[in-house]
């Protein structure tokens, strides 16, 4: 990929890319900055960018009002649990679709994706009734299952496209050597598939973390994740920009940090078979 | 290469995923269908009997139905166009040699990690507010009258907010695709004196077509059901009432479950029309 | 076989252990509430309750108003049982009570003194004479105005202004160059937002939502006059972006000194006069909501109240909590910690008889506004419904919000008052037909 370019062109590229990057990132940056202001500074006219009295007051107020750690922990369990469960169900399915394709494979795959198009609001009432009768309301397990089902099509598809890039000959060779199906998966396929699985896990963790309809509607106190935490800071009485910013920062920070640390991993698998 | 043995094993392995999704699709669908033929008003005692297709007729003939389909398509279409056009441009830019490429990439993908609720709240209050928003200050700084984003440019504002969230996703997929492009081919074209525009048109764009369809498909799936962005910002006012939001109003605000369920069935039909349309394009590409 | 048996025994004892753990632990009340200032304060004072009631633990679900309404309505309509105490309004209470979804609150203890609850609040929160939700705070609406700007404009606010005076004053106070807007009014769509306000304006102009036969009345001249008045006033003297301003947005504007007048909930008085949050705290005056001389003033009546859903497994504990939060002692507790001005207002007669509270600048006007509101007879003409700024039928939330969106679009300049009224009339007719009226 190393193309020779002049230093001048590289400088222009750098400036342009950084400008665009900062522009896109700016709303997040502004939220983080605002979270350290007082409410009065948050709406000062003209706005202050960096030169204000930095304060942690808002974080204190937010923590005092709501038990952040509990919301965070619920988010982790729900996003993590649903992703894990999804992977367990999806790996065999994707494996068989990729290596033992039949005429219907593509249809099944597309059908799976189409289930994601069910409008959530339209089925809220039925799902709510089912949850009541199963006693799943406001439980983490209920949400883990729902999040898993919502993201399962994406998980299957990502894994499928990733598995397909693994050359079949290797499997043939392993089979010649007398490896059983189990061993084939365990010792041949898995190591090759790990990067794909890793990025699938990451993407779905993010999607489950950010899902705000089911997580808000099917929980109350015990299983409420960060999406519910945020719902108590949107438009309260009086000035609220700084507190809202603090709450927002707390809600997105964990996933932002995770995303940044693992972005290489995420990017590598986020191709959905787009790269040939 | 598939033997009989591996074929049945494969089917067995597919079972859990298929059964789960079938259940997840059928159970709510059947219940929604059931409710859609009923007069079901929870605040008036619940089930008030069968009404045939009355809910369907009413939902379709309501003055809000077609505008809601229109806003849904405008929002989905607008976001798709913006994310794909800017996604391609951004991917081309990020592919160029530069200093600090890793950091720039981190900055660009960050919005993807932000919850829709948070991003809608931040945009609505801290940017688009006509008095205290940053954009209002910017306009005033240049001596212009601040824009009332969410009321006068409501659809555009929603498209902007949603595009901001999805641009990173499009960019990443497109960037990966560009990076897989055979650079020798490009260099050869450059040597031959092909101008940048035709290099883009004849080599890069065809190479990206597959990635673009993928972006199209995945984003459409997510965009058809956007809800939080509208709920937080305009609550469906100013022409931003999408089909999803209209159903929400019927089921939860009016507490008319029958009518809302009929709307849900229409939404499923609309989604499937879009899906079939998309699958036609994507299906071909998936084979390749 | 033995293996399985062992396993079964283990899991059984495990299950038993789990349920024991749940049973033995303190009773937990899940309380759904709004993220308004008074409720957040209550959350901070929980220790007072738990120390007096060992064995009861409180779990708070604090949500933004719209989300809260959606959650509690969904939950009660499906008997989901997720909450033991719900914060609901004067609109929901009689409707839910009629469905048998709420626990009657006629026995909240001997020292509760239910007769002390302001009569207007008590009747609004009762169904067939029984109280079903205890008022946490109550409000009417009134005019809040900037005394300094009024003086500068050379006008004097009467105690009971007319709409004509308000319009004149608003135009005189407006100074768009300096971002001073004569009047801030609700414009954000929603039955609890702009429609609450617009309905009171309509009432004072002699309009009504339905006639005696439930026929929608938005095509009448009274509505046209009221809506045109509201529209013109906001065009000339309102802030930019008024179509997205609700209570909170206007509060922020007023606190920043950008509004000359603001007609809204009486509870706002304590926020705009609080020097910590408000830059105009010492320059605020109060007046009754305006009228047009037709006999009805534009003030509403509302209460945020605590109700207990029928079927909760912690009814006794929930009653203890409701009694605590709406008691006289709670008012004293808040007063001792935050001062009398920050006490949740509008719920009890004794509060307004308290000499300490009478010193609070907005106390008298709040009480007078509440007393001026009569949900039983909200309009000049006869109506088949109760409720001042709402119509107490299940369809109202849908109707109000749909119509509110039309008026909001009108304020944003996307349609004329006539078009908005026409569309609203059509929408309301649709909804009423769908619900089976006529």
Automatic annotation (TrEMBL), chain A:
The keyword Transmembrane applies. GO terms for cellular component: plasma membrane. It is a multi-pass membrane protein. Residues 72-262 form the ABC transmembrane type-1 domain. The chain crosses the membrane at residues 12-33, 71-96, 117-137, 143-163, 184-209, 240-261. One of its GO terms (biological process) is transmembrane transport. It is found in: Cell membrane. It holds the Pfam family BPD_transp_1. Gene3D superfamilies: MetI-like. The keyword Cell membrane applies. Keywords: Cell membrane, Membrane, Transmembrane, Transmembrane helix, Transport. Coiled coil: none annotated. Belongs to the binding-protein-dependent transport system permease family. This is Carbohydrate ABC transporter permease. It comes from Oricola cellulosilytica. The lineage of its organism: Bacteria, Pseudomonadati, Pseudomonadota, Alphaproteobacteria, Hyphomicrobiales.
TrEMBL record, chain B:
The chain crosses the membrane at residues 12-37, 73-94, 106-123, 155-178, 211-232, 263-282. SUPFAM superfamilies: MetI-like. Pfam families: BPD_transp_1. InterPro entries: ABC_transporter_permease (IPR051393), MetI-like (IPR000515), MetI-like_sf (IPR035906). Gene3D superfamilies: MetI-like. GO terms for biological process: transmembrane transport. Residues 69-278 form the ABC transmembrane type-1 domain. GO terms for cellular component: plasma membrane. Its main location: membrane. It is a multi-pass membrane protein. Keywords: Cell membrane, Membrane, Transmembrane, Transmembrane helix, Transport. It is found in: Cell membrane. The keyword Cell membrane applies. PANTHER family: ABC TRANSPORTER PERMEASE PROTEIN. Belongs to the binding-protein-dependent transport system permease family. This is Sugar ABC transporter permease. It comes from Oricola cellulosilytica.
TrEMBL record, chain C:
The keyword Signal applies. The keyword Iron-sulfur does not apply. It comes from the Bacteria. One of its GO terms (cellular component) is periplasmic space. It is found in: Periplasm. Keywords: Periplasm, Signal. Residues 1-26 form the signal peptide. InterPro entries: Bact_solute-bd_prot1, SBP. Transmembrane segments: none annotated. Belongs to the bacterial solute-binding protein 1 family. This is Sugar ABC transporter substrate-binding protein. The lineage of its organism: Bacteria, Pseudomonadati, Pseudomonadota, Alphaproteobacteria, Hyphomicrobiales.
């Amino acid at each position: 990929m190393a193309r020779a370019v002049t230093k001048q062109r590289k400088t222009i590229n750098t400036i342009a890319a950084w400008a665009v990057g900062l522009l896109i990132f700016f709303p997040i940056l502004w939220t983080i900055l605002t979270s350290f202001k007082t409410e009065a500074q948050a709406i000062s006219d003209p706005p202050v960018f960096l030169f204000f009295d930095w304060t942690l007051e808002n974080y204190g107020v937010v923590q005092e009002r709501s038990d952040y750690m509990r919301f965070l922990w619920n988010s982790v369990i729900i996003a993590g649990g649903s992703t894990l469960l999804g992977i367990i169900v999806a790996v065999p399915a994707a494996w068989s679709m990729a290596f033992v394709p039949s005429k219907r494979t593509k249809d099944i795959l597309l059908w799976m994706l189409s289930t994601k198009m069910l409008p959530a609001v339209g089925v809220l009432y039925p799902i709510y009734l089912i949850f009541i009768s199963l006693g799943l309301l406001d439980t983490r397990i209920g949400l883990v299952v729902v999040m898993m089902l919502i993201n399962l099509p994406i998980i299957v598809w990502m894994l499928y496209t990733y598995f397909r890039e693994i050359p079949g000959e290797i499997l043939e060779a392993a089979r010649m050597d007398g490896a059983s199906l189990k061993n084939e998966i365990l010792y041949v396929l898995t190591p090759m598939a790990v990067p794909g699985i890793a990025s699938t896990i990451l993407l779905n963790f993010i999607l489950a973390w950010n899902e705000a309809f089911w997580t808000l509607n099917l929980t109350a106190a015990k299983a409420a994740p960060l999406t519910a935490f945020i719902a108590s800071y949107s438009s309260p009485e009086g000035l609220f920009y700084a507190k809202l910013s603090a709450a927002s920062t707390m809600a997105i920070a964990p996933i932002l940090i995770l995303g940044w640390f693992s972005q290489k991993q995420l990017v590598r698998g986020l191709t959905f078979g787009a790269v040939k | 290469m598939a033997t009989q043995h591996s074929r049945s094993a494969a089917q067995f392995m597919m079972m859990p995923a298929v059964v789960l999704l079938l259940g997840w699709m059928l159970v709510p669908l059947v219940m929604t269908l059931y409710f859609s033929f009923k007069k079901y008003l929870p605040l008036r005692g619940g089930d008030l009997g069968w009404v045939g297709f009355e809910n369907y007729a009413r939902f379709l003939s309501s003055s809000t139905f077609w505008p809601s389909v229109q806003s849904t398509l405008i929002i989905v279409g607008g976001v798709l166009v913006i994310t794909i056009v800017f996604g391609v441009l951004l991917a081309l830019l990020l592919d160029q040699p530069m200093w600090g490429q890793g950091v720039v990439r981190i900055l660009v993908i960050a919005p993807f990690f932000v919850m829709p609720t948070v991003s809608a709240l931040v945009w609505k209050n801290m940017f688009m507010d006509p008095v205290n928003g940053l954009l209002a200050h910017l306009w005033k700084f240049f001596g212009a009258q601040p824009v009332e984003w969410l009321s006068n440019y409501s659809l555009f504002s929603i498209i902007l907010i949603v595009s901001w969230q999805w641009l990173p996703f499009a960019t990443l997929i497109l960037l990966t695709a560009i990076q897989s492009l055979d650079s020798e081919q490009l260099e050869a074209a450059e040597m031959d004196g092909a101008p940048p525009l035709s290099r883009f048109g004849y080599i890069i764009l065809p190479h990206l077509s597959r990635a673009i369809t993928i972006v199209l498909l995945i984003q459409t799936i997510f965009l058809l059901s956007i809800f939080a962005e509208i709920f937080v910002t305009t609550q469906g006012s100013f022409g931003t009432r999408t089909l999803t939001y209209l159903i929400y109003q019927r089921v939860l605000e009016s507490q008319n479950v029958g009518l809302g369920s009929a709307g849900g069935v229409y939404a499923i039909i609309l989604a499937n029309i879009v899906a079939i349309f998309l699958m036609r394009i994507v299906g071909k590409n998936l084979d390749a | 076989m033995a293996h399985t048996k062992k396993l079964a025994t283990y899991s059984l004892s495990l299950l038993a252990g789990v349920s024991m753990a749940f049973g033995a632990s303190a009773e937990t009340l899940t309380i759904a509430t709004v993220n308004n200032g008074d409720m957040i304060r209550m959350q901070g004072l929980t220790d007072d309750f738990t120390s007096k009631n060992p064995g009861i633990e409180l779990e708070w679900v604090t949500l933004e108003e719209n989300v809260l309404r959606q959650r509690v309505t969904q939950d009660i309509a499906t008997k989901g049982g997720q909450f033991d105490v719900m914060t609901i309004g004067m609109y929901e209470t009689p409707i839910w009570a009629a469905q048998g979804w709420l626990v009657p609150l006629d026995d909240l203890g001997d020292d509760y003194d239910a007769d002390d609850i302001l009569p207007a609040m008590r009747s609004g929160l009762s169904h067939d004479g029984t109280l079903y939700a205890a008022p946490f705070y109550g409000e009417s609406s009134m005019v809040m105005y900037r005394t300094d700007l009024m003086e500068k404009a050379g006008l004097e606010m009467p105690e009971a202004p007319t709409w004509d005076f308000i319009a004149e004053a608003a135009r005189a106070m407006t100074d768009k160059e300096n971002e001073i807007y004569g009047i801030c009014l609700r414009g954000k769509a929603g039955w609890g937002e702009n429609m609450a306000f617009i309905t009171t304006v309509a009432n004072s102009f002699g309009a009504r939502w339905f006639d005696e036969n439930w026929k929608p009345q938005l095509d009448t001249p009274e509505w046209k006059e009221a809506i045109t008045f509201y529209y013109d006033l906001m065009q000339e003297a309102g802030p930019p972006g008024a179509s997205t301003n609700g209570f909170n947005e206007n509060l922020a504007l007023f606190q920043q000194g950008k509004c000359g007048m603001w007609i809204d909930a009486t509870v706002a008085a304590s926020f705009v006069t609080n020097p910590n949050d408000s830059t105009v705290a010492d320059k605020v005056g109060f007046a009754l909501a305006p009228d047009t001389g037709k006999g009805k003033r534009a003030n509403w009546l509302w209460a945020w109240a605590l109700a207990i859903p029928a079927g909760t497994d912690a009814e006794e504990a929930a009653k203890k909590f409701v009694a605590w939060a709406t008691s006289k002692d709670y008012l004293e507790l808040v007063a001792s910690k935050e001062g009398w001005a920050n006490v949740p207002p509008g719920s009890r007669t004794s509060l307004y008889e308290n000499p300490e509270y009478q010193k609070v600048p907005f106390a008298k006007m709040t009480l007078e506004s509440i007393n001026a509101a009569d949900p039983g007879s909200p309009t000049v003409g006869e109506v088949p419904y109760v409720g001042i700024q709402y119509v107490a039928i299940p369809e109202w939330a849908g109707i109000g919000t749909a119509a509110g969106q039309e008026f909001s679009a009108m304020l944003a300049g996307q349609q004329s008052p006539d078009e908005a009224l026409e569309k609203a009339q059509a929408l309301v007719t649709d909804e009423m037909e769908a619900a089976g009226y006529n």
